[in-house]
Amino acid sequence: MKTRITIALLFFAIVSQAQVQRLSLKDALKYALENKADAKKAKLEVENSNHKIAEVRSRALPQISLNGSLTYNPILQLNALPGDFFGQPGTTILAPLGQKWNSVGGASLTQNIFDYSVFTGLKAAKSTREFYQVNAQLTEEQVIEKVANAYYQVFVQKQKLNTIDSTLENTTKVRNIIDGQFKNGLAKKIDLDRVNVKLINLNSTRQQLVNGVQMQENSLKFLIGLPASTPIEIVKEDIQVKPFLNETPSVTNRSEYQLLEKQKTLLKYQKESFVAEHYPTLSLTANYNYIGQGPVMPLGAKPADGVYWSDFSAIGLNLRIPVFTGFATRSKVRQADISLQKIEEDLKDSQLALGLEFENAKSQLNNSLITINNQKENVTLAQEVFSNTKNNYVNGLASLTDLLDAENALTEAKNNYTSALLEYKLAEIQIIKSKGELKTLLNQ
User: Fold this and answer.
1) Which residues constitute the domain of residue 134?
2) Residue 196 predicted with pLDDT over 50
3) How far apart are the C-alpha atoms of 55 and 117, rounded to whole Å?
4) Could you tell me if residue 24 is inside a domain?
5) Residue 148 buriedness (CB in 10 A; 0-12 / 13-18 / 19+)
6) pLDDT digits (tens, 9 = 90+) for 370-407
7) Which of 22, 239, 333, 414 is the most buried (most CB within 10 A)?
């Protein structure tokens, strides 16, 4: 009975493990954004920025602390005092001051009244959150781009696999025809051998494609955060090929550019924080303490034991006015100016790079459209040539060489068409990226 239960459990485990995960592009993208480590970490950075804001805000709030101490003085310091205090004018008396035991407990409060660096820090912390929000958006777009590219590469590899399967089917039919003719003495053995050789080569090519598809699928699984052992099935879809509307996108919509803008803002606040070191600061301090002194441990002791308790308190204002810092603050400000100039150059360079990226994607897309149209016509023509050559061969009007050449031309035309579709989709993704609209792929 136990053996049967164990076998049943193993069976269900194997079945559940072998359950195929069907993926459309939309499914793959959503799964990646929910499970991929990069996307998760970017979201955690946004969440962590809220804690950074709270940390900076704490500098503007009261700082309260409790303190306590217990001190034992085995040897009291002797102080030289005038003898007048002890009825011995003209003499100096060495007398101990204080008690063997001292115990102090109290509370202190510090409140910043004016500190410009605190206000600058608050503004910088809020901008830091915006920086991480843009960075999270950029990370998501990068994940979407990688997954979309990998998805279409798997899709195209499978299309090529379908093409080789179709070629195998046609070649097998031809082999069967030649085999029948050979058995009836109407065909030569060399013709049958040539077709058998081609079938072996096609099967080898097919196995290479199968391995290629498996590796591409594993890459896709990694990019979306899916375990490599999970079998997947790409949902078949019709690739829509449409002309591109020739419109130049705004570079400022790109997350890459916005991220640099946020970095520039943070550098400005950093400069302000350095300038704030020239400003005076004002803070309020207050404390209240209770002290016990005596010849024995004060804790729990009373005046009858020679221990006396008293309280004391103080309230004050602390003003700090920087006068000279050895030009350290000036150096920090000048370094901040250099950093701002560098980020300005990065922004200019980014505009050029993003513009070049768009132009290259536009050229690639237009060239792919031309290639697709040409290859589509070529596939139709190659199919007609193959069909006619096959009929002619069956009727003895064409040689086997002509038939095999026609079949090779058809396979090549189909693969070229499929490759052109891949180039088109990859260029289309770049066009969508250049518009800052990669997330629209989630709605397709």
Assistant:
1) 19-72+96-443
2) yes
3) 14
4) yes
5) buried
6) 999 999 999 999 999 999 998 998 888 888 889 889 99
7) 414
